Hints:
The protein is built from 19 helices and twelve strands. It is of the alpha/beta class and about 600 residues long.
Amino acid sequence: xxxxxxxxxxxxxxxxxxxxxxxxxxxxxxxxxxxxxxxxxxxxxxxxxxxxxxxxxxxxxxxxxxxxxxxxxxxxxxxxxxxxxxxxxxxxxxxxxxxxxxxxxxxxxxxxxxxxxxxxxxxxxxxxxxxxxxxxxxxxxxxxxxxxxxxxxxxxxxxxxxxxxxxxxxxxxxxxxxxxxxxxxxxxxxxxxxxxxxxxxxxxxxxxxxxxxxxxxxxxxxxxxxxxxxxxxxxxxxxxxxxxxxxxxxxxxxxxxxxxxxxxxxxxxxxxxxxxxxxxxxxxxxxxxxxxxxxxxxxxxxxxxxxxxxxxxxxxxxxxxxxxxxxxxxxxxxxxxxxxxxxxxxxxxxxxxxxxxxxxxxxxxxxxxxxxxxxxxxxxxxxxxxxxxxxxxxxxxxxxxxxxxxxxxxxxxxxxxxxxxxxxxxxxxxxxxxxxxxxxxxxxxxxxxxxxxxxxxxxxxxxxxxxxxxxxxxxxxxxxxxxxxxxxxxxxxxxxxxxxxxxxxxxxxxxxxxxxxxxxxxxxxxxxxxxxxxxxxxxxxxxxxxxxxxxxxxxxxxxxxxxxxxxxxxxxxxxxxxxxxxxxxxxxxxxxxxxxxx
Length: 598
Ligand SMILES: Nc1ncnc2c1ncn2[C@@H]1O[C@H](COP(=O)(O)OP(=O)(O)O)[C@@H](O)[C@H]1O
Ligand SMILES: [Mg+2]
C-alpha cells in the first residue's frame, strides 16, 4: 500500500486522505485508542457491564491473600479452630465466585470484540464500495483484502481480549498498592518502589514493539498483494514460462515477512525474562523488609505471607500485560491501516443540492472537456461534441486514443479538469450520482463475471428482474439458445467456480445486463471486439434492437457498427479529429470515406 499511498497523495484529482503521514509512536496511540473505543458506541451498555465484572474479579483476586492473612494471624495468636474452618469455607466460596466472575468477564469481552469487529468490518466494506475509480486505480486489491480481513481481525484481539486484560491487570497492580499501604507503610513503599520499574519496562517494551508490529502487518499485506496479483495472472506466468522468476519474487516477499516477524519475536521474547528478573529482585526486597518487620514486631506473619502471595500473583499480570501490550500494539498498527481507509474520502460525491437527472430524451454534450488521470498528461484535450436524443454515434480511433476514457467521464467515474459534460442540459456534476448511473447503461470493455449463476449475472444490475425479463434480454443478445442447452439452464454457475464463458459470451452477458436496466443512454465499449464472424452477425441484430429509442454511443472498430451509425466521431490522442455525418443517401461511414477520414 506504500506505493499506492504515495500515488494517491501525489495526484491532484486523486482520493483525498484525511490524516497525513504515519502517527508518532505514542501521541497518536492515545488518539487511535479513543477512536477505536468510539466504535464501541452501540455497545456501551455491554461495555459497562463487562468493565464492572472485570473490577469485581480484581476485587475477588485481592481478597484471597487477605483471607489467608486473617487465618494465619488467627492460628498464630492461638485462636480456636472454628475460625479456621470458616476461613477455609470462605476461601472455597471465594474461589468459586471468582471463577464464575472470570468466566463472565472472558465471555463478555469476547462478545464485545466480535460485535465491534462485525460493526467495523461492515462499515469498512461499505466505505470501500463508495470509493471512486481513482482510489482503485492506485490501491492494490490484496492490500485492501488484508485490511478488511486480517487487520480487522487484529482489532477483535483488542476489543475481545487485550484491552480488558491490560485494564484489569493495571487495576490489580493499583489494588495491591492500596491494600499494602493500609496494612503496613514500609511494605507499601517497597512495592511502590517496584512499580515504576514494572511500568517503565512495559513502556519501553510497547515503544519498541509497535513499529515492529506495524512492519509485520505491512509485509503481510505486500505478500498477500503479491500472491493475489500473481495468481490472477498465473496463465501469463505459465505461458511465458516465468514460474522460476515468480518463485524468486515470492520468496523475497515471503522472506521479508518472516524476517519482520522474527524481529518482533526477538522483542517479545525478551519481555518474559525481564519480568522474571524484576519479580525476583522484588521478592528479595519484600523478604528483607518483611523479615525485618517481623523481627521488630511491626509486621505480622500473615501479612508477610499475604504479601508474598501478592507478589507471586503479580507475575502473571506482568507477563500477560507484556504480551497483551504487544497484542494491543498490533491492534493499533492494524487500526491505523483500517482508519486510513475510513479517512479516504470518495473523490466523486453528490454535490450539496444535487438533483435527480430529469427523465428526458438523452442529449449528451461534451463542452471543451479536458481530463488527465495523473494530473500531468492530458488524456482528453479540449474535446467538444454533441449527441442528439436517439442518435447513434460511433466513436472510432486508434487504441489509447481516449475512447474508453470518454465513457468513464460521461458516467462521472472521474472528475474533469476543465469543461463540462451535459445530459439534457444538466451538468452531470449537478445530478445525483444514482440518477446519473441509472440514466446510463454501460457495457464495459472488460466484462466481469461474478461467481454465481448465469441468470443472476445477467440480472446483476436489476436484481428484481423476472425470469421472463432475463430470458427476453438473453434472446436479444443471442444467448438464450446457448443457455437453454446447458443442463441447469439459467441456474448454471459461471465465473471462477463455474462454467468458463468465452470472450464473446461475456460481452453478450454485459450487453444483456445493460439492456435489462433500460437506460436512456447506451454506452458500448467495443461490444463486438471478441466475437467471431457468425456471432458478430447475430450480435448486430441485438445491437440494432438495443439502440432502438435511445441515445447510443458505440466505441467500435468493426464495420457494421460504423456503417449503421448516424454519425462517426474520430478521436485521436484525446482530440476530436473529424466527424462524418450520414444522411438518406450515404452512410456516415461513406461520407467520412469520401472526406478521406477512414
Ligand atoms: N485508469 C487509468 N489510469 C491512468 N491512465 C489511464 C487509465 N486508463 C487509461 N489510461 C490512459 O489513458 C489513455 C487513453 O486510454 P483509453 O481511454 O483506455 O483508450 P482507448 O479506449 O481509446 O483505447 C491511454 O494512454 C491509457 O494509458
Ligand atoms: Mg478502450
